[in-house]
Amino acid sequence: MARGAAFLGTDYAIMAGAMSWVSERHLVAAVSNAGGFGVIACGAMTPALLDAEIAGTRALTDRPFGVNLITMHPDLMELIDICGRHGVGHVVLAGGLPPSGSIDRIKATGARLVCFAPALALARKLVRSGVDALVIEGMEAGGHIGPVSTSVLAQEILPELAQTLPVFVAGGIGRGEAIAAYLEMGAAGVQLGTRFVCATESIAHANFKKAFIRASARDAVASVQIDPRLPVIPVRALKNAGSELFTAKQREVAQALDEGGLAMAEAQLQIEHYWAGALRRAVIDGDVEHGSLMAGQSVGMVTREEPLAEIMATLIAEAAAALAARG
After folding, report:
1. Where would you tag: which of 75, 77, 263, 327 has the fewest CB atoms within 10 A of its CB?
2. How far apart are CA 159 and CA 240, in angstroms?
């Protein structure tokens, strides 16, 4: 873990997944203050909102934290500049290959660039393009997911690239024993999201947290794509009435495409805006029936609300015990 911790500037190489509406200043600062690496979820934020969120996080912690930016955001370059003005040390790009010019722009700010790689071929391409670290996230994760499991991705990518640059493993991790296993395979660290949602410091609505605490792994299911023309990335969330609302939204967007009233890029942006709104209804307003309950399959290991420092200490103790048991 030392390599990952040195890269992040933290005590532990445990990144917090960027979860829209959840990964805001309070949770991000709590993760960093507990020795991990908090990451602000910019999501659909405007440049002004991100500017305020970074400043607000800085007021709560003097430890390193990062900012997650979505590659398809229409103001991506301006968001990068805001990270640069604040001296953000690590930028995490999610949502596809970095658009032209974005990597150089991030590097020009002095920040280290972390990107997601859902396949070995894409991981190699990102390495050639100059990224500083990778996150390989399996389909067990919450939110937007790829088609391959974490364990398979780790076996494919770690032997090939773990010596080249730091690789963090994500998806379905809820206990320290799994962290230890991926470290032994060559990972520089891990990323967890679902495990931190019910931290005391998380601003998620009490209803949202209760849904997580009651859920089992099988309750976290992936969304269905109903029209192959729509480049809809599957989303894993707890099944509720909101799952059916997303199916209806896809039909609405597909019909608009049929009628020529919508360009493909705008169609994809509408889908992303839908998720941002649905997630806000659940996380902030507490509407757990019609909002989106994005959660990974590790949700069954979330059993109570507890301080972030206790969650981190438990994970580290479990990992250390697992390694000690192996001699």
Report:
1. 327
2. 39
